[in-house]
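for the writeup, i need someone to sanity check this before i put it in the appendix. the sequnce is what the collaborator sent (i think, or maybe the updated version? ugh). structure was predicted straight from it, no edits. if anything looks off just tell me and ill rerun, i have time this weekend
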Amino acid sequence: MPRPLSACLLALACALPAAETLPANGAFEEGKARWWGEGGWSVEADPTGGAALRIAGGYACQDKMAVQGGTRYQVRLRIRCEGAEEGSVFVQASFRGKGVDPGWRGPIEAGGEPALVATGGSHAWKEFSVVVEAPAGADQFLLYLRKAPGSPGTAWYDDVAIAPTEAPATPAGGGGGRPVVKNPGFEKGKAGWWGEGAWSVEAGQGVDGSAALKLDKGFACQDKIAVTGRQAYRISMRIRSEGCADASVYVQTSYRGPAVDAGWRGPALVKLGGRSEPALFVTGGSHGWQEFSTVVAAPPGAQQILVYLRKQDGAGSAWFDQVAVAPSDEKPLTAADVRRAELATELLPAKAADPAPALAAAVAAAQGQAAPLALAAGGKALAHLHVASDADVVALGAAAVGLGNTVRARLWLVEGAPGSALAHRLGDQAAVALPFAVRLLDFQLETWEPTVVIGHPDGAGGWRYEAGRLPLETGRRERLGAWTVEVLAVLPQAAVDGAAARPFTQPGAGPAATVAVRDAAGALVGSGWVHAPTAWGGALTVPLGGDAVALMAPPKPRLYRSLVAIDHGDGRSETATIEVNRPLVVDGWWLYQTGYDQQHGGASQRSELEAVHDPALPGIYAGCALLFAGLLLWLWRLRRELEAAR
């Protein structure tokens, strides 16, 4: 008689090897079994129950965990810290397999290296979860639980688990990491900082009697502080100044990452000789310890922030202490916000209940009488005057009235922000009050079709292109210089994750494509993703040997426009569209579309307008109309005379 089905299934289950849980002994109930490491690490009973791994400095590792290349794995674990420096407790991962790079992998940085998670301080048990993809060809996973040697405090690890998942890989900046400023209070001297000029660390000069950085001239910098693109961060510090020139003590920031502009960024401006540069904070003179704090946004693609503490040459000294960089959910401060506050201080009384009188005064000043027109000096004529028909007199007179009275000002608008009636005059940035307020409802950008090109760095941060461009059409192949390029696949809208692109349908997302590049002999020399920098990812290029790369040329704007609301002083409101070469005329002001936030492209929520007020324009137009009418009359009379002569 055949066995029952249940007995057969039981026998089959017993015959199959049990699936191994990764890592083995992840809860440390078997002590150090399957784990090895270096430094001060041990397995101890946890007060909350069970066992846990304790690390005072060093690491514990488990290797040879079998995985499959191309599969995504979720790494979960719990960590508890006590008195540890921020970022000194972290987890790293590595893979092994044929042709696999054994380097560290992870979405954040810890100690200047890729990591899965990072933490520190003092906190109770906290769960961390990260998804990482095993590279093609990988067959082993290595996991390192770390605590920076020589750093204070202790870390505990427990319930470590690794399992396959369909969830997407954790993007850069995920994994529970946060920016880490090394030696923020200068208690370890100059550790973590470098610079030029006259700078030192002095004991007993800090905010609470501890150490502080002293600058007589030059700068001190800390770089490689990990950040995530598009994330807001609050940057704060304490500054003391003694006998310094006004505005000679300042702080600057810069970012690094794929396709990230390395220039200075910040909402303030510092004057350096005959030029100005963006800055984070600007101070000087003589004052005790003051806290400086602001929120800024890291640009798309940013991976690191650099903080420079500076003092210009000259008398006095400045001290810095308690430097901090931390993620924030607050709205970033922009240069426009700073300028708006300055203008409010300049134009409006401190306790004014109604700003209308001050605005009216500013408008009156902007529309005042023109300065007299000098026609001669020192016995010599200063202008050539042409006096002819009445129309010429009208036009000339209107132009003379307008001389010295034309106002050109720049107006920055932000979607969702309150209407702005204050602009900055071109040239001297003086305040200009408009007789109405302008609100940006929507900014729209249209670009020409993107193309794939072959480029070489030009040494100035740009590209020198080979002849020819390849449109983004799947299957299309063209010769570009010495290479033949074929488009294998196209994503109309994409975001960048690491070295690859994925579909992403959000405003400002640009296209991406996979391409294959062959040399003159038909041999494949490179393949992969190409993507032009957008708000949702940096540049992706395909190296071709030497300095040549295949890349997507940044799409050029074809048309951009602003949908605005005009709020009049009498309560009326109207909407209108302003395009390049299609200005809007409101109450004698011409509003021209001149720019936008090019860093964010189609995702820009900022628009730049130029406001022009010229009292002479009506007279000039009237004179031109009379000139045209006079010309028509002259032609009509000439025709009558010719007909009469016949």
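The first strand starts at residue 36 and ends at 45. Residues 459 and 547 are 11 Å apart (CA to CA).
thx in advance!!
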